[in-house]
Design brief:
Blueprint: E1 4-7, H1 13-24, H2 33-57, E2 65-67, E3 70-74, E4 77-81, E5 83-86, E6 91-97, E7 102-106, E8 111-116, E9 119-124, H3 126-143, E10 151-157, E11 163-166, H4 171-176, E12 177-179, H5 183-192, H6 201-213, H7 222-226, E13 248-250, E14 253-255, E15 262-263, H8 266-277, E16 281-282, H9 284-291, H10 296-305, E17 310-311, E18 318-320, H11 335-344
Parallel strand pairs: 1-2, 6-10, 7-11, 10-12
Antiparallel strand pairs: 2-5, 3-4, 5-6, 7-8, 8-9, 13-14, 14-15, 16-18, 17-18
Helix pairs in contact: 1-2, 1-8, 9-10
Bound molecules: zinc ion (ZN).
C-alpha cells in the first residue's frame, strides 16, 4: 500500500499563462529572451516537482497524506509549500529544487550557488526558505487549534545528476538537503523518531480538508511583468493551419480567409487564454473585441456553449474563468515555437 495523495499537482497559473502567451503573442516577439528564460524557469520548476511527486507516490505508507503544492495565508502573509506530507505524528515540508549541475551550499554564508558549464548563479538559502514556511505553517495550524505538531523540513534535489557540495562540511546539511533518490529512506529515519500520535485520524482528515479549502493559488500578471500590451498580441482567432488572423465567423464556423481552413470551436482556446492573460472574467462586449466579431448574439451563444459560471443577467452578465485548480491542463504551445526553441538554444 502506497502513500495517499489528496491533492495532485496541476500546472500553476504562471505556467498556464506562459503557454497562453506563446499562443497569443505575435510571432516576431515569441522568442524574446526574457520571456523564454522565465518560461523555462517556471517549466523546470514544475518538471522537478513532478519528479518528486512520482517518487513520493511510491512511498509505502498509506497513512502518509500528500498535498502536491499548496498556497495558504498566515495573515497577512501568503506562503507556498512545494509538497506537504501529513501524518498523525508529524508534518513534513518539502522544498523542491530543480537546478542541475553542481549545487554548493554554504551554511555560514547562508547561500546556495549553482554552477552549470562554468557559470555561477546564486540563490536564496533553501534551508532558510523551508524554515520560513515552517513558521508560517505553525501560525496557520495555531489558528486552527493545533499547537504541538512537530514539523520537519527537507530540501529535495529533484534530479540525480545534480551534485550537492557541502562547502563547510557540516554534517547537519546532509540531513537537510537530499537527493530525490534518498527521500524514502530519509522519511523512514525521521518518522521512526515520532512514536506519539498528536492528532487522531479523524482530526488529521479534517485538517487535510481545511488545507484544501483554504488553498489560494497565485495569479501572476505576466503581461505586466514583461511590459506586453495589445500591440504585441494577435487580434482575434489565429488559424491553426497557417497562422493567419483573425478567422471570420461564417455559418456557425470559424473560417480562415487565407487557407480556407475551418474550425468549429477555435474560440474556446482564445477565451481560455484571455482568462489566463488578461482577466478572470469576461463580458459579451470584451468577448466581441477579443474574437473580432460584431454580433452580440454570436458572442452570447459562444460564451453560453462553454458552460462557464456567470453572474448578473442580460447586458450585465459576467462570465467567469474556471478556477486555477480546475483549469484545463492540455494547452500545447504552437509547434512552430517548439521547433524554433530547439534550434535556438537560448539558455
Ligand atoms: Zn489558415
Amino acid at each position: 500500500m502506497f502513500s495517499t495523495t489528496i491533492k495532485y499537482r496541476e500546472k500553476s497559473h504562471e505556467l498556464l499563462a506562459y503557454e497562453a502567451l506563446f499562443r497569443r503573442i505575435l510571432e516576431k516577439y515569441r522568442l524574446h529572451e526574457a520571456i523564454v528564460s522565465e518560461y523555462k524557469r517556471v517549466k523546470a520548476g514544475y518538471d522537478g516537482e513532478k519528479n518528486v511527486d512520482y517518487k513520493l507516490s511510491t512511498y509505502p505508507d498509506k497513512d502518509f497524506f500528500i498535498i502536491q503544492g499548496i498556497r495558504l495565508k498566515n495573515p497577512p502573509f501568503p506562503f507556498q509549500i512545494d509538497t506537504l506530507i501529513l501524518t498523525t505524528k508529524a508534518l513534513y515540508i518539502l522544498e523542491i529544487k530543480n537546478q542541475k549541475g553542481t549545487f554548493a551550499y554554504d551554511s555560514e554564508q547562508q547561500q546556495m550557488t549553482q554552477t552549470v558549464d562554468g557559470e555561477v548563479r546564486s540563490f536564496k538559502d533553501p534551508i532558510l526558505q523551508a524554515e520560513a514556511q515552517k513558521d508560517h505553517l505553525r501560525g496557520w495550524l495555531a489558528r486552527h487549534g493545533i499547537f504541538n505538531m512537530p514539523i520537519e523540513t527537507l530540501v529535495v534535489i529533484a534530479y540525480p545528476t545534480t551534485i550537492i557540495k557541502n562547502v563547510r562540511d557540516e554534517p547537519d546539511v546532509y540531513q537537510k538537503i537530499i537527493h530525490n533518490e534518498s527521500l524514502h529512506e530519509n522519511l523512514d529515519r525521521r518518522h521512526r523518531c515520532y512514536t506519539r500520535d498528536i492528532l487522531s485520524f479523524t482530526q488529521l482528515k479534517k485538517i487535510c480538508q481545511t488545507l484544501l479549502d483554504e488553498d489560494i493559488p497565485l495569479r501572476t500578471d505576466i503581461l505586466a511583468q514583461h511590459g506586453i500590451s495589445a500591440q504585441h498580441l494577435i487580434r482575434g482567432i489565429p488559424c491553426r493551419n497557417c497562422g493567419h488572423y483573425p478567422m471570420t465567423r461564417v455559418y456557425k464556423n470559424w473560417k480562415c480567409a487565407k487557407c480556407s481552413a475551418v474550425s468549429k470551436n477555435a474560440h474556446e482556446r482564445v477565451i481560455l487564454d484571455y482568462f489566463l492573460l488578461h482577466n478572470p472574467t469576461i463580458t459579451n462586449k470584451q468577448c466581441r473585441e477579443l474574437l473580432q466579431i460584431n454580433s452580440r448574439k454570436t458572442a452570447y451563444t459562444l460564451l453560453r456553449s462553454m458552460a462557464l459560471n456567470t453572474s448578473g443577467n442580460n447586458k450585465g452578465t459576467i462570465y467567469y474563468s474556471p478556477s486555477v485548480k480546475n483549469f484545463p491542463q492540455n494547452s500545447a504551445i504552437p509547434i512552430t515555437f517548439n521547433n524554433a526553441f530547439a534550434k535556438q538554444k537560448l539558455i
